[in-house]
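User: Here's a chain of 101 residues. Predict its fold as tokens.
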Amino acid sequence: MPLIGLDGPAPRAWRERLAPSVTPSGRPISRAATVATSQEGLTQVALNRGGMLFCTPTADCHKRPDVRFVPVTGLPPSMLALAAVTREFREAAAGEDALVA
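Assistant: Prediction complete.
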């Protein structure tokens, strides 16, 4: 899953922590768009355009019915969770597209 990064005047190390370019084992991670805010990023996640990494407290503050926060393992110690569109929301959206067509 490509990761959505935050845009703006942030240090490179901070950007790399939020949207790493490689896995801990060194495999490349593709990039999706960059966004200006967490809410903009979560909208991109809900549109199935990529995922984002959030610390658990931030994920708790930004819960949405169309996005699921999944704990991440294998990263350096932290409290990150992955934000991804829920299967139920994808299926409902696909059904709405069929009704419009």
